Write a sequence for this structure.
């Protein structure tokens, strides 16, 4: 079994959907995971925001505009009047469902149902397209098997069991289409795996189905050595270990959802990042293999808050760090980076929802300082001891940029620094110029 996930741009127009249909040909069994068409989830977020504010006329105008966009897709995608009618009826159902939200109380539950419409639409439209072209396939509802628990973590055992139940209904089928991103939560309600979550869906489905390979088809030829949206002259990396890819995804490489490498790593399933616009390009293979000896890539994660706790008295006494960590645990707020000295502990979080409560509790231990608008810049590679010199190259490149924290030694594949977000572009550019040995694409 193979899992093939196509992102928003890859299914973003009638023409792109046609390309996807040609990329999934072949007899070997496949589960194809689709995102919403590009722009749709953003539009749904905007519709939800408008509904929260009770601006119903504005919400209706946004819904109508999105509906019109989809009518155009239907016009371009299908050739027969029958399929056009079937698809337009489907659109009417989904968009009337959205319009109904303007008449009800709007809460987080309704918001999640709104956000789910993008993937429900893209998969249904694609399934109709396959039907029109005589390609046998089955549309699997992700809401029947994809589930998160009360801690918002995927319930791997449930997913594996229910996916088998769904697949077993179609013993002769080899091509399955399903939605990325959407799931049910512990209360059985519609929920999602957070923005960019279709990658995570693909990896969870791959692990659940014991797949041979997970392919993530997107709009770029693999994981680049630096953020191509910010830095010129980046190049794709042919091979990454699971740990290296997980660090890059977690620390901001948008091509992969932050958690999406973990399920594949646990089942040792190779992940390939491929380009829908350039299917012949080599892309990136992520596997257990670790090619040592070099700095591979840089990623940056914005929206970081740094918290420093200063205490002359208790600090570094045993039990102190545990008390600090317990505060974060109580508020279910993960810590990304941590550094200690004799008189202070600094750590970072990316979720500041409970920041005020956390600070109030930490103040019991000492003086607390908070710095917002920070960015973690994470350099990934194989930093085993004998490769001395990597640190020097990194800090030489960053010599003009004030560093708030430095973290090294937590794993063999990551050196991270914390900087003001205002210095991010300069930091990524300087690192690009200063730390990579290779300068040509795919060298
Ligand atoms: P999809 O809709 O297919 O999921 P995304 O927009 O989520 O696509 O991810 C692909 C985008 O990620 C690329 O177009 C690129 O701009 C961005 N990106 C950020 N960092 C990297 C990186 N290190 N390598 C490749 N792409 C990256
Ligand atoms: N459609 C969702 C989003 O835009 C999920 C995804 O594309 O992966 O975030
Ligand atoms: Mg994505």
């Amino acid at each position: 079994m193979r899992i093939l996930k196509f992102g928003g741009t890859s299914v973003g127009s009638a023409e792109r959907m046609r390309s996807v249909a040609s990329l999934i040909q072949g007899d070997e069994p496949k589960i194809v995971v689709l995102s919403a068409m590009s722009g749709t989830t953003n539009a749904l977020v905007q519709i939800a925001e408008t509904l929260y504010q009770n601006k119903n006329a504005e919400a209706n105008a946004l819904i109508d505009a999105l509906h019109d966009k989809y009518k155009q897709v239907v016009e371009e995608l299908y050739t027969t009047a029958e399929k056009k009618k079937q698809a337009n009826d489907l659109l009417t159902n989904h968009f009337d469902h959205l319009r109904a939200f303007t008449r009800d109380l709007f809460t987080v539950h309704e918001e999640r149902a709104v956000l789910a419409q993008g993937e429900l639409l893209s998969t249904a439209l694609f399934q109709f397209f396959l039907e029109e072209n005589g390609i046998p396939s089955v549309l699997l509802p992700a809401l029947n098997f994809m589930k998160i628990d009360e801690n918002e973590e995927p319930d791997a055992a449930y997913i594996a069991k229910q996916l088998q139940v769904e697949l077993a209904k179609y013993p002769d089928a080899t091509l399955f289409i399903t939605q990325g991103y959407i799931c049910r939560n512990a209360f059985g309600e519609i929920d999602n795996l957070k923005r960019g979550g279709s990658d995570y869906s693909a990896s969870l489905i791959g692990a659940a189905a014991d797949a041979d390979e997970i392919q993530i088809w997107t709009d770029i030829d693999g994981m680049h050595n630096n953020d191509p949206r910010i830095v010129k002259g980046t190049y794709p990396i042919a091979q990454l270990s699971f740990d290296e890819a997980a660090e890059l995804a977690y620390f901001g490489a948008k091509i992969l959802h932050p958690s999406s490498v973990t399920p594949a790593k646990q089942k040792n399933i190779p992940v390939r990042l491929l380009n829908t616009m350039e299917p012949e390009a080599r892309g990136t293979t992520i596997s257990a293999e670790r090619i040592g000896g070099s700095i591979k890539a840089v990623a940056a994660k914005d929206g970081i808050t740094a918290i420093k706790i200063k205490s002359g008295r208790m600090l570094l006494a045993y039990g102190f760090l545990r008390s600090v960590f317990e505060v974060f645990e109580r508020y279910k707020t993960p810590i990304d980076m941590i550094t200690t000295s004799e008189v202070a502990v600094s750590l970072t979080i990316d979720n500041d929802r409970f920041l005020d409560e956390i600070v109030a509790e930490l103040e019991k231990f000492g003086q607390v300082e908070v710095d917002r608008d920070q960015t973690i810049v994470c350099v990934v590679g194989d930093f085993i001891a004998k490769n001395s010199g990597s640190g020097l190259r990194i800090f030489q490149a960053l010599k003009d940029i004030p560093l708030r924290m430095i973290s090294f030694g937590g794993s063999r594949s990551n050196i991270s620094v914390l900087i003001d977000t205002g210095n991010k572009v300069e930091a990524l550019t300087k690192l690009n110029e200063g730390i990579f040995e290779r300068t040509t694409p795919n060298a």
The domain at 296-435 is CATH 3.30.2130.10 (VC0802-like).
